[in-house]
Amino acid sequence: MSCMRRFCHETQSHDSLHSCMCRRSVALLLLKMSEERDPAALSGSAQTEGEEDLFVSAMESPEAARLSAEDISPSSNGPRDDDPDDPDDLFAEATEEVSLDSPERQPILSDGPSPAITPVTISPRVDVFDRSPDLDEDEEENRDTFDIQISVSDPEKVGDGMNAYMVYKVMTKTSLSIFSRDEVCVKRRFSDFLGLHSKLASKYMHMGYIVPPAPEKSIVGMTKVKVGKEDLSSVEFVEKRRSALERYLLRTVKHPALLKDPDVLQFLESSELPRAVSTQALSGAGILRMVNKAADAVNKMTIKMNESDAWFEEKQQQFENLDVQLRKLHASVESLVCHRKELSVNTASFAKSAAMLGNSEDHTALSRALSQLAEVEEKIDQLHQDQSYADFYLISELLGDYVRLITAVKGVFDQRMKAWAKWQDAQVMLQRKREAEAKLQYASKPDKLQQATDEIREEIEEWEGKVQQGERDFEQISKNIRREVGRFEKDRVKDFRVVIIKYLESLVHTQQQLIKYWEAFLPEAKAIA
Amino acid sequence: MMLLAVNVDLQTDATLQVDISDALSERDKVKFTVHTKSTLPNFKQNEFSVVRQHEEFIWLHDSFVENEEYAGYIIPPAPPRPDFDASREKLQKLGEGEGSMTKEEFTKMKQELEAEYLAIFKKTVAMHEVFLCRVAAHPVLRKDLNFHVFLEYNQDLSVRGKNKKERLEDFFKNVVKSADGVLVAGVKDVDDFFEHEKTFLLEYHNRVKEASAKSDRKIRSHKNAADDINRIASTLYTLGTQDSTDLCKFFLKVSELFEKTRKIEARVAADEDLKLADLLKYYLRESQAAKDLLYRRGRALVDYENANKALDKARAKNKDVLQAETTQQVCCQKFEKISESAKQELIDFKTRRVAAFRKNLVELAELELKHAKGNLQLLQSCLGVLKGDT
Lengths: 529, 390
What we know:
A: two-stranded antiparallel ribbon; B: mainly alpha; 3 strands; disordered N terminus; acetylation (chain A)
């Protein structure tokens, strides 16, 4: 990797050291790792927010958890390839491996450039940077200035019959500079969203980024809409989808890397978008996806990874448990939504029958009271209906989103396993080549020996490079995942807190209304003489 | 006590007090301990108890219905058969599904179902008691000999349930009666009071039937929703114990909250069941008994009119006049006797009905308020803790 510049070209300032360094290192890593990426996307995707690189270091450290501005796990490489020509380069004198056991550590987060500081040391910052990922002050600050609003609205049906589709208006309001305008409005259809997700997944997932999953397809739901049924269920379906698409976009732009991705920008801004045909289930790409998924599943079973990092093992188990419980919760909440809707319908029906009973009752006061009861029940039925919408849109959809998100998280862990496997495979190949080289000494005829030796030497070098690359990739993806999981957990805590509080407030409102209605009814009942 | 739900104006009469002091649920029958306190001379003691089963209550009721002397009274409706089938089925299903849920869930659901079983049990006791109290409060029926035997005879009454043949006979009798009832109903009554009552009762009975069915369905949905909240609370608890982030405390608190609100929701459903559904069910049966009274009167009227026609014919032919005259006299007396008591019975019925509805509607509103306020308080205090915990 090239030198780590102190002066950051992206923010045009003397930014905190570690953030710039990591941005560049990531950029170069991406350059090497991606094969399918077009060059244009490179600059966009390289800009991960450096602040997020502050995370836990390897657990082998017996001391308290340390800050790792760079990746200081023992098996990784610290900054290397110093450029002696650059006076601003702080790492000019940095040692190649930064050992955790080095006693001389000094805070690296100094304000302003001070090229005189050598050697580079990192002090343990137990209080701030400990194992829980949600204590990153700089990251918090950046979040507060996260200024982008996205809305998905105005679903419109275009076309007729089975070729019809819904078009949604996507409006983006932002003050961020990467956008060309403050406010932009585009029209998108569902397959456009799927196309966006597909592109993002292929670009970022293998690096360990958690790419938010797109809303699910629904053949039944869409067919009803296409056929033109204007009934309640198809209206609800469109609304459900619109809301899901909005949440999807918001989650995508919340991810600092994805926000700057050119595909995302194009999606939000450009008026014309090439039709994403490969998202159709039965297309060639769709079939390929299914084959790949199957292959992945088989591979997963055969890869037996030696997990040296307990953090990953623990996290994987946690996500497994979380998955099970969230699914269970989701099922119960869906059942609740259903029963509350039923309750609303039955209450309305009872209200009608109570009104009829009141009509036929020949005692005037009782008759009036029964009519009042009918009115109360009718209002209560409306309450139940509203509550069931809250149940659904607040809780049930959130849970559904998180079940899908956790699948994406698990996918990212799988990617790490694949990276590990690739690295291991490279090591095996290298070993074989070395053995082959050793054998050569005894095998070939003297005239062919030189040529064969050269060949094998070349191959050995090639595989040595691949082993190093594999190791680096593995380290990188592990690092990325740690960061991503930290961010994910933070978001999860926030999301759930916000939603649950909103939900409880809706329950409070329902009870307050109930009290109002029954308090109005009580004197009527008492007035029966 | 639940019995007061429908028996609002039965004065505590020292001459005859009846209640069900105990009940035992065996596998497929319930044994009620009927306890009597009386100063009447008919009884050997002032206070005594016997054990009776549901079939014996039905026997007593049927004996009233079949007694011509009581044709002019609203016969207190028979208590419905104790029905634990649904509850037993649920308990069985729970037992089968034991493997698929956690121990806490299983214990919780078991407790729920046991509470439900107990509630059904209490209800059936109350309904049998109400029947006896209505009989004891009725000025004429309370003197009935069968009733006294029922109360006092401490051996098994050996009342066997009706066998298949007898049940078939009953079925046909009912068919004939309803067909007949339609005919009788068609006969316009000279008396305005009864004409009005007939129209009123017909419509009222149907409306009560519908309201009763709808209220049952509503309460069932309510119970289902409460069950869901129960499951949600359990899962939240598990999440709370497993979560590695700050959410664990959050989940545990919300789980606790839902446990409590779920209990309240279940109580709301139970109270609605008691105060509204049971009330409607009872008046469904009472309005049927009132309709039966009107039918008997109508039948008597038709008989009387037929007897009149027969007498005229006999006089015209001058054949069997005396016989015709006797028949006509008997029919006339019967009809007038029924009419007289029926009027009072129907007025009493209205009074009882209005009072029962008033009491129950007031209590329903008060309970709904109490529960809503309880719920609100729980929710608000939990919200306060959660919001302050950021």
